[in-house]
Amino acid sequence: MTTKELISDANKYIMNTYSRLPIVLVKGKGAHVWDSDGKKYLDFLAGIAVCCLGHANSSVSDAICRQAAELMHVSNIYHIEPQIRLAALLVQNSFADKAFFCNSGAEANEAAIKLARKYAHEHMDAGRYRIVTMKDSFHGRTLATVTATGQEKFQNGFDPLPEGFGYVPFGDLDALERAVADDVCAVMVEVIQGEGGVRVPADGYLEGVRKICDTTGVLLILDEVQTGMGRTGTLFAYEATDVKPDIMTLAKALGNGFPVGAMLATDAIASSFTPGSHATTFGGNPLAMAAGISVMGELLQGGVLDNCRKMGVYFRGQLDELKKRYDFIKEIRGRGLMLGMELSIEGADIVRGCMDNGLLINCTCDNVLRFVPPLIITEEDIDQAVHILDEVMRDV
Ligand code: PLP
Fold first, then answer.
1. 32 Cα: distance to centroid of ligand 1 (angstroms)
2. Range of the domain at 10
């Protein structure tokens, strides 16, 4: 089939939930992907912060192939060896004592919300069920997680929304303190807001959130679906602060592209889940776990995280140089290889221009270009990306 025919069939057979760009991606290797016409692109979106080790990473692909030939799926009513191994790896390298596996970020957050509510029913004063989240946050698209998401544009048309969520401005500790009333059981926050425009809070913010949670006795849930798995230069973004959460959610890069999510918690909190409390058919299945074990193995070797930190600094420096040349660039922000460029104009034409010139990026909040490349990129990749951006911006 030609690209035109494929896109025509896509419009005919697939629900219209994305405004898709008019290319069909068919192959990837490292930081590059190819479309159905054979055109090569430098991929600085990486499935939106998913393919941390690059496309077709041989360790992950081999692990998946080996596992597929051995055992692809069994029920969670039995013990699953790779699940035990990935849980141990995550627990041994984080604040957590226990893991629950699922298939996406939204599901991980849904599990976190349910665990916080269940814990509150058992251990907090009656009537504590509300969860405070941040304006401009993003936590997923299920009914509970889209309600947790502090952006009306994602909620419009789906009411009545579930009860029990409230929002305060990201970064505003006074507002949070006022919002944590005696009906609140948890605060849920991203370490750096991703979909909300790559927003990094001021130093000390997360410590302030932790303090409010401690003083009021409510749980702290960190949504590290986008920031986790090395994206910001440490395995988990909270490691760059003095804060440890009570519950943390992961997905995106955990499987380097294989769908997998996880919700981690301390023993005291995890023990509120007992048989029957929560479940998923596919969560923790051997194939997803094999991918996760492989990703963890690569990240724990250190080289990839080291490269992420180094390339993050280099890329940011190059983007700062661009900022000096174009007055429509308002701000460069982010950490590691999660970088955003806020513009005073809409970003869609720049995204399209970059794609036409062989660079894949995206734009959040209409005017924030987002760069979340594989963590294995090189200086040459960055130079090429910045060169393409420069060429496209020159024509704006
Ligand atoms: N949480 C955060 C911080 C995210 O960035 C996302 C997705 O972009 C989600 C949750 C939802 O993850 P998923 O799309 O896998 O359901």
1. 23
2. 3-57+303-395
